[in-house]
C-alpha cells in the first residue's frame, strides 16, 4: 500500500509545468513551479512544519500551546495543517483587507481568526502587528512564529524548493524568478540554486509597484502576499541579482490569462511573477531554462481578480479577458 502517514507529509515536491501560451515569441523554456499542489494550497505549507518542528525542539512550543501569528492567510493555513493535528490551538490575526474567503478557510481548518484594521500604522495598538504581539503576551503558552524574522522559513526553501528545482531541471535551470513577501522563498531557494550552480543561476525578484524591495515610492497596491514597506530579517538581498517592478494592472491581467490560456487558476502574486519572468525571458536564448514560482491557488481570489465587478470598481480593464457571455449576478 502506498499512502502518506499524514497530510503534512504531502508538502513539497510540487511539479514544474511549461508555460506554452502566454510565452508567445519567447525562445527560452519557461517553467512554472506550481505551489498550489501543496496540501494547503500554497508555498507557505513548506515553512510551517519547519517552524513548528524547530519551536518544539527549542521548547518555545509545548504540548497544549497556542500559535499566534499575523498572516494574510497562506501561512495560517500551513500552520493550521500541522498545528491542529498536533493538538495546538491556532489564533491568526488577519488585516481586514485580506479577510473574507481567506479568513473563512482558516476558520474551516479550526483556527480562530481576529480581524484588524489595515488603515492604521504598524505601531498603532489596533494594527495587525500590535494585536498579534498583545495576544502572544496575554495567552498562556503562546508561541509566535514571526514569519518575518524566523530563519526556519528561508531554511525550508533552501532545503526543499531549491533542491526540487535543481533536481527536476537536471541542473539545467539558468534563471529563477519569484515574488518577495517575507523573502523566504527567494532567499532560501535562490541561495540553494546559486550555491549549487557555482553562482551561475540568475535570481530575479518580482515586486509590486509601491513596495520597498525594488526601490521607488512606497504606496499601497492590490496584489496580495508580496511586497513590503520594511525589510524583514528573512530577506537576504545578496541573493537577488535584479528586480522587476510590476504594476497591479499587469499582474492582474496576467493572472486572468494564466487561468484562461494555461488552465492555471492562481493568485495575483503568481501573475506578477509571470510578468517578471516574461520580461526576463524576452532577451534569453533558446537554451535558457527559467523557473518561475507560482505561490498559491486562485480560489481565494474569486471575488477579486476573477470578478469583473471588483476589477472594474478598482479601475482595472477587463475587456481582453472577459467572456463574451456576461455572467448573471441575479
Ligand atoms: N505570494 C503569496 C500569495 C504569498 O502568500 C506569499 C507569502 N507571503 C508570497 C507570494 C511570498 O513568499 P515569501 O514570503 O516566501 O517571500
UniProtKB/TrEMBL annotation:
A Pfam family recorded for this sequence: PALP
Keyword vocabulary terms for this entry: Pyridoxal phosphate
One GO process term, biological-process aspect: cysteine metabolic process
Keyword check for Transmembrane helix: no
Domain Tryptophan synthase beta chain-like PALP: from-to ranges: 7-296
Known cofactor(s): pyridoxal 5'-phosphate
Family: Belongs to the cysteine synthase/cystathionine beta-synthase family.
PANTHER family: CYSTATHIONINE BETA-SYNTHASE
Record-given protein name: Pyridoxal-phosphate dependent enzyme
Natural source organism: Microbacterium betulae
Source taxonomy: Bacteria, Bacillati, Actinomycetota, Actinomycetes, Micrococcales
Amino acid at each position: 500500500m502506498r499512502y502518506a502517514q499524514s497530510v503534512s507529509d504531502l508538502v513539497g515536491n510540487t511539479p514544474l509545468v511549461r508555460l506554452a501560451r502566454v510565452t508567445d515569441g519567447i525562445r527560452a523554456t519557461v517553467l512554472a513551479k506550481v505551489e498550489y499542489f501543496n496540501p494547503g494550497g500554497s508555498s507557505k505549507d513548506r515553512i510551517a512544519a519547519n517552524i513548528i518542528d524547530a519551536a518544539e525542539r527549542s521548547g518555545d512550543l509545548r504540548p497544549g500551546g497556542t500559535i499566534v501569528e499575523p498572516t494574510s492567510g497562506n501561512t495560517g493555513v500551513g500552520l493550521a495543517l500541522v498545528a491542529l493535528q498536533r493538538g495546538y490551538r491556532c489564533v491568526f490575526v488577519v488585516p481586514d483587507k485580506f479577510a473574507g474567503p481567506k479568513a473563512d478557510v482558516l476558520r474551516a481548518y479550526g483556527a480562530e481568526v481576529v480581524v484588524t484594521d489595515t488603515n492604521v500604522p504598524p505601531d498603532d495598538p489596533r494594527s495587525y502587528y500590535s494585536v498579534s504581539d498583545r495576544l502572544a503576551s496575554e495567552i498562556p503558552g503562546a508561541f509566535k512564529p514571526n514569519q518575518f524574522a524566523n530563519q526556519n522559513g528561508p531554511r525550508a526553501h533552501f532545503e526543499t524548493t531549491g533542491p526540487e528545482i535543481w533536481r527536476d531541471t537536471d541542473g539545467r535551470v539558468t534563471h529563477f524568478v519569484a515574488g518577495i513577501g517575507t523573502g523566504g522563498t527567494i532567499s532560501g531557494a535562490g541561495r540553494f540554486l546559486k550555491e549549487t550552480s557555482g553562482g551561475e543561476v540568475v535570481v530575479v525578484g518580482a515586486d509590486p509597484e509601491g513596495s520597498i524591495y525594488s526601490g521607488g515610492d512606497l504606496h499601497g497596491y492590490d496584489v496580495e502576499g508580496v511586497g513590503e514597506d520594511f525589510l524583514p530579517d528573512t530577506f537576504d538581498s545578496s541573493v537577488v541579482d535584479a528586480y522587476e517592478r510590476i504594476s497591479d494592472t499587469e499582474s492582474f491581467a496576467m493572472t486572468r490569462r494564466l487561468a484562461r490560456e494555461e488552465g492555471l487558476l492562481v493568485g495575483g502574486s503568481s501573475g506578477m511573477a509571470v510578468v517578471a519572468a516574461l520580461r526576463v525571458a524576452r532577451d534569453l536564448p533558446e537554451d535558457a531554462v527559467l523557473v518561475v514560482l507560482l505561490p498559491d491557488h486562485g480560489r481565494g481570489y474569486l471575488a477579486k481578480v476573477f470578478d469583473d465587478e471588483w476589477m472594474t470598481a478598482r479601475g482595472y480593464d477587463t475587456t481582453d479577458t472577459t467572456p463574451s457571455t456576461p455572467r448573471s449576478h441575479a
